[in-house]
Design brief:
The protein has three helices and nine strands, in the order ββββββαββαβα. It has about 180 residues and is α+β, with helices and mostly antiparallel strands. The protein folds into two domains: about 55 residues, SH3 Domains (SH3 type barrels), CATH 2.30.30; about 100 residues, Fe-S cluster assembly (FSCA) (GMP Synthetase, Chain A, domain 3, 2-Layer Sandwich), CATH 3.30.300.
């Protein structure tokens, strides 16, 4: 069953990514659109016959609340922080697919390493569903932005890799059910 779409008016100029190409352009104020997906703090809108993605940090441009960064205790262990990082990764979605990148099987590596100054370095290796996916850089940037917003992370590296190539067998059972596969 198709979910009803919410109509929104762009309140201020905002940068948006054209889906699936990934090209960035500015939507002017007073543009009308419909929210087709609002998952993990980003928004996919249908505007003038095109799908575009707006970052959660720009939620106010469509009358929504921006996400609140997570608080992390000062005494968190690398293992516990790794769990927090995985939780953050689960808030990143392909703008065309209503399943997070972890459940899609797009995250291959998530390393959390303590540094000498009591901060942490995070290294993510991820892929996309197809090598020509124009949204790959945008999704990777969302991962980067969300992780950099976490306190105590002083270095964040997100790399898109294509080995091994992604296929449907990498999806979780929940992702397959959500997509009707």
């Amino acid at each position: 069953m198709r979910r009803p779409r919410e109509t929104v008016v762009i309140r201020r100029p905002v940068h948006a990514e054209l889906i699936p190409q990934g090209d960035v352009y500015e939507l002017p104020a007073d543009t009308i659109g419909e929210i087709t997906q609002a998952l993990g703090s980003s928004f996919t809108l249908y505007v003038d016959g095109f799908l575009v993605r707006i970052a959660g940090t720009d939620a106010d441009a469509i009358g929504k609340e921006p996400p609140v960064p997570l608080a992390i205790p000062d005494d968190i262990s690398p293992e516990d922080l790794r769990g927090v990082v995985w939780d953050v990764l689960k808030t990143c979605y392909d703008p065309e697919i209503p399943v997070d990148i972890v459940s899609l099987g797009l995250v291959y590596v998530c390393d959390v390493l303590p540094l000498d100054d009591e901060t942490f370095r995070v290294s993510i290796k991820m892929t996309v569903t197809a090598p020509g996916c124009g949204m790959g850089e945008g999704i990777a940037q969302e991962v980067q932005d969300k992780l950099e917003a976490l306190p105590r992370l002083s270095q964040v590296e997100v790399e898109i890799v294509f080995d091994p190539p992604w296929d449907r067998s990498m999806m979780s059972e929940e992702a397959e059910l959500e997509l009707g596969l």
